[in-house]
């Protein structure tokens, strides 16, 4: 997958590859609990000054709570968003992104547990709704891609996930990709862009993540995707325009809960 990288695959420092400054939509990937990744996102947002920011971490209702008079007050904004109860990493890591573009409009693209559960009952296309075909969510994945995704889901769950659950997990990931892509398209159409999308590396990848679905639905939109890895732990896969590396975060054994 690394061969899909369109620019130098590991870049350190503030310079991004040519093209990000002319993009309509910028997908800024992250490892969720790495503060350096969020600092880098904030730097890029400050430079680009997007008209809109799309958040994987917020529902549309939460995003609607972001008002210009709240943005200067970190504590008040965090409280209005209910961030402390959200389960996402500490708000202090994400707040500089809000502060970097205080006039930006905000769009939420969080897939709720209820929506994820609907995939199990009604299927992906029915859960996503009328635009499923436009974003390619009404068709099965190619067999080789499906198998790669199934293997990835099993590895992400420490090889402890029942085999019959893996296809559902893949469909939920596709729902998240589609929701991000649809929110980015809505934000671009309503504001004229540019649009920054704050999301995990897995959704920011250009080969099959949200950028690929957005490109399918709106081929004329210019898309840039940044992946962020951690030094010594490999680069994220997925055909990013640029992959940068930051110091790693020390974590416990993620598989301990499955033992």
From TrEMBL:
Q: Which organism is it from?
A: Pseudoponticoccus marisrubri
Keywords, alphabetical: Signal
The identity of this protein, by name, is Haem-binding uptake Tiki superfamily ChaN domain-containing protein
Q: Which residues form the signal peptide?
A: 1-17
InterPro entries linked to this entry: Cofac_haem-bd_dom (IPR007314)
SUPFAM superfamilies membership = EreA/ChaN-like
Q: Which residues form the Haem-binding uptake Tiki superfamily ChaN domain?
A: 21-213
Any Pfam family: Cofac_haem_bdg
